[in-house]
Each structure stands twice: as structure tokens, then as C-alpha cells.
């Protein structure tokens, strides 16, 4: 009985993810106002009956897509930090997690081109939550930040800067984005966090 329940639950999760993957593609291709439940069915390959068992309206679908994107980001960050917990590596680890998160949802690049206003509005509505998440992820590194210790910036301000850089990286096409290594190195030096800051400090001390 337990095996059957687990199988059904796994299938339901896979269908839910399939619907949301298709919904993101449909939203990117059709735009917020032309996007319909029929488009979701076409892109995800599910019937209308199946779709409506999971979602009552396109607004519910969009809300679920947003929730999935945020959950995925948190999971990528949590996993990456667990694998490399050293505070000196924290900005690099966060940056790499953002890259993996972006790669998981390639349709986001098209969505930022077709619906830039929608993307920015949604990010703005979740900005404080993203800052709180980033401050949580940065916590041990912030405790060692020279700029924070000197009172030049607060922990929240650092988290805001990192979130804004992450948004810029996520919404710009790869060809227009600064490389993640350059971005990480710049932030480490600017904020006094990580290996770049440590090396700079050693050079100054020498």
C-alpha cells in the first residue's frame, strides 16, 4: 500500500512539474495577456482535464510557477552551501547556485525579453523576501566582512547588493552578462567578503 501511494505521489509531482515547465514556456512565447490554459496544455502535453485537476485558472498557474522558481533557487543555494560551507567561498558558491538555477529554467531568458515589465514587477514584489533569503545564506561571510565590521555597510545592504546583482545576471541574456567569475571577484573585493578580499588584505598587509 505504501509503495502504491509513493508511486501515485511521484507521478503527481512529475505531472505538476511538467505542467509548470510547459506553463513557463507558454508564458514566455505568448506573453502575460495572450497566455491561456490551452497554451499550457499544448506546451506541457497534458489534457485540459488533467490541467484543471491541478489548477483552476491561469492566475493559479502563474502563481505556482513563481513559487516553483523561488523554491528552486532556495534549494540550489541550500545544496551548494552544504557542499561548500566555508565562509570565504560563500559569494562564489551563491553565484554558482544562481547559474545552476538559471540553467534549470532556460525559458526565463525568453520571458525576460517578451515580458520584461512582468518579470521586474514580480521580482519587485518578492524583493524583500529575496533579501532575507540572501542575508540568511550570507550570514557567516557577513560576520567576517571587513566592510560590515567597519560599519561601512550593514548586513542587509550587502544582501540587497547581492540580490540586485543576481537579478541583473538572471534577466540579462548570457552574451550581455558579465561573467560570473568577474561578478564574484568584484563583489568580494567591494564588500570585503571571500577569497578575493582575503588576498587583497594580505597584499595590503605585505
TrEMBL record:
SUPFAM superfamilies in the record: Homeodomain-like
Keyword Transferase: no
Pfam families hit by this protein: TetR_N
Domain named HTH tetR-type: residues: 13-73
MF terms in GO: DNA-binding transcription factor activity; transcription cis-regulatory region binding
Keywords: DNA-binding
InterPro entries noted in UniProt: Homeodomain-like_sf, HTH-type_TetR-like_transc_reg, HTH_TetR
PANTHER family reported in the protein's UniProt record: HTH-TYPE TRANSCRIPTIONAL REGULATOR PKSA, HTH-TYPE TRANSCRIPTIONAL REGULATOR RUTR
Protein name: HTH tetR-type domain-containing protein
Source taxonomy: Bacteria, Bacillati, Actinomycetota, Actinomycetes, Mycobacteriales
Amino acid at each position: 500500500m505504501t509503495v502504491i501511494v509513493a508511486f501515485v505521489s511521484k507521478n503527481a509531482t512529475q505531472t505538476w512539474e511538467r505542467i509548470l515547465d510547459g506553463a513557463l514556456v507558454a508564458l514566455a512565447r505568448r506573453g502575460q495577456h495572450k497566455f491561456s490554459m490551452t497554451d499550457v496544455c499544448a506546451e506541457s502535453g497534458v489534457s485540459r482535464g488533467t490541467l484543471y485537476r491541478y489548477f483552476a485558472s491561469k492566475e493559479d498557474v502563474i502563481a505556482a510557477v513563481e513559487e516553483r522558481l523561488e523554491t528552486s533557487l532556495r534549494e540550489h543555494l541550500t545544496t551548494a552551501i552544504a557542499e561548500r560551507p566555508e565562509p570565504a567561498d560563500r559569494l562564489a558558491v551563491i553565484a554558482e547556485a544562481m547559474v545552476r538555477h538559471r540553467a534549470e529554467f532556460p525559458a526565463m531568458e525568453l520571458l525576460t525579453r517578451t515580458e520584461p515589465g512582468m518579470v521586474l514587477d514580480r521580482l519587485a514584489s518578492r524583493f524583500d523576501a529575496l533579501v532575507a533569503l540572501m542575508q540568511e545564506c550570507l550570514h557567516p561571510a557577513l560576520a567576517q566582512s571587513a566592510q560590515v565590521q567597519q560599519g561601512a555597510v550593514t548586513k542587509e545592504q550587502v544582501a540587497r547588493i547581492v540580490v540586485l546583482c543576481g537579478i541583473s545576471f538572471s534577466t540579462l541574456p548570457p552574451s550581455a552578462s558579465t561573467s560570473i567569475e568577474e561578478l564574484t571577484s568584484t563583489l568580494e573585493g567591494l564588500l570585503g567578503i571571500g577569497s578575493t578580499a582575503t588576498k587583497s588584505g594580505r597584499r595590503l598587509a605585505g
